[in-house]
Amino acid sequence: MEIEHLDLPGLMLVTPRVFEDGRGSFSEMFNEREFQRRTGVDFRVVQVNRSVSAQINTIRGLHAQMPPDAQAKLLRVEHGRILDCVVDIRRGSPTYLGSVTVELSDEDDAQLFVPKGFLHGFRTMEPNTRVIYKVDAHYSPQTERSIRFDDVDLGCDWQLVGGEELYLSDKDRDGMAFADLDNAFTYQPVRM
What we know:
The protein is mostly beta strands. The chain has helices at about 30-40, 170-175; strands spanning about 1-5, 10-15, 20, 25, 45-55, 60-65, 75-80, 80-90, 100-105, 110-115, 120-125, 130-135, 145. The model has no long low-confidence stretch (mean pLDDT about 95).
């Protein structure tokens, strides 16, 4: 497993080793013990979700669940390609309100680990894109929050050139402003 730390503390690209032979390939997509040993993060999967987006330029997000139901996520693209945007909303973080965009596709095995305390969303860049999420807390509609993907306070670079037809759910289209969020996240450095 290869771990690449990104520009926001705790945000990582996780790429499993791939073993290939004449039959094809095999990879261990997630190993809890190895992940904890390599990252210092206790990530226990309790739910696995899959989203399927038929259209290019489908935007899902920005989402987070508030404490006590906060979720960390490990996601990968099963089919297609996405531009993922993550925003650090942990008060006291050295990168508070900083954002990172990462392109993920089915052409590699990279997975994005999004810790608790981050907003997360993505834009599809190919039709019929499928994304798999492993999460460490169950879905909680009561504590889920949807922030507008284009909130000017957040600065996500969705790499839109203008004129694209965007596809959003009503929840995302009507998302709240970040300024109105009941933000209970605080930064706690991970010690390894």
